[in-house]
Specification:
about 100 residues; alpha+beta; two-stranded parallel ribbon; 5 strands; flat
Amino acid sequence: MKYLVSGYKFALLIVLICIAPLHHSCEKSDDPEFNTPLGTVSDYDGNSYYTKQLGDQWWMINNLRTTHYADGTALPLIESIAVWDALGNDEKAYCQNIL
């Protein structure tokens, strides 16, 4: 019984050690880099993306979902792994769930 109680105390200690950093990581930061407002940008297809300013740069938060270049030219849709693997380094295309 002595070892069982020690085991529970040890398990409780491990849980507390794991939870304490999580509580601290959820606190709001006063660092202005983390508190900058979100922006938005849209693509040719009308998809909207959230952006976030980090330093002097604006970064997209979401993955790109467009199927066209900014000038309206369509991006090729690749529908097989073999064709995707055969693309050259300079060729551009997009795929959807081909795995």
